[in-house]
Amino acid sequence: MTALLSLDRVSKTFTQGRHEVRAVDDVSLDVIQGECLAIVGESGSGKSTVANMILGIYPPTAGTIAFRGEALPAARTLAHRRAIQLVQQNPLSSLNPKRSIGASLRLPLDVHDLGPRAARAARVGVLLEEVGLPADYARRTPESLSGGQRQRVAIARALACQSDLVVLDEPTSALDVLVQARVLKLLNDLRKGRGLTYVFITHDLSVVRNIADRVAVFERGRLVELNPTETIFSDPHHPYTRRLIGAVPVVTADEVRLRDRLMENDNERA
């Protein structure tokens, strides 16, 4: 298995007045090419700080982050920014309300000079269709779309750069349950179809179960467990992981049967 991204003894310390806060403490982990690695933990666990260091928003205080075997510099190049893209939690705040959807999707194509200029408008339409939206949505504004549609646009924008690694920072937490399920299915389909690699930041373990290959559990800035998703849910090793699993709402057998029956009916209608 090839590591696309590697963190080697990475730490991040913030200074607040005369006090120092160790947000991430001596973390080492690999993200394997083609996998979805979920990083989970409560607020303040360090998971978002790890994401920001991967993206180059924060430089590590100690340790190194390597991409394709080469250490990433503190000041990321345009090529690095193209290769590692972000999908944010709130798509409304991440999209410029003064730009049309088409203009927002075309911007990364122009910045990174991807494809012939004359073909970029058509490329925008292809990107929209790839995330399940009509090509004519390019003329709309973010405020005219639903939350799920805006998140699809945000995903399309990350894909526009033909990136290798996508960091998803709580991408479904602002969505209702049905829309959340559709977005997760879209992300799974895109990962398989494009061969993408995901780092999925979340506090919601029910989401993790539906998308992640492996789970990294963070507590107070430290990586306390890293295991396949099946192991995390069937045989969690660390006491903190067991507490997180114990806090997940339990679904009864009757509810599972009802869900499966309803999903079968929906599939037949489709």
Automatic annotation (TrEMBL):
The keyword DNA damage does not apply. Residues 5-245 form the ABC transporter domain. PROSITE patterns: ABC_TRANSPORTER_1, ABC_TRANSPORTER_2. One of its GO terms (cellular component) is plasma membrane. It comes from the Bacteria. GO terms for molecular function: ATP binding; ATP hydrolysis activity. It is a peripheral membrane protein. It is found in: Cell inner membrane. Keywords: ATP-binding, Nucleotide-binding, Transport. SMART domains: AAA. SUPFAM superfamilies: P-loop containing nucleoside triphosphate hydrolases. Belongs to the ABC transporter superfamily. InterPro entries: AAA+_ATPase, ABC_transp_ATP-bind, ABC_transporter-like_ATP-bd, ABC_transporter-like_CS, Oligopep_ABC_C, P-loop_NTPase. One of its GO terms (biological process) is transmembrane transport. This is ABC transporter ATP-binding protein.
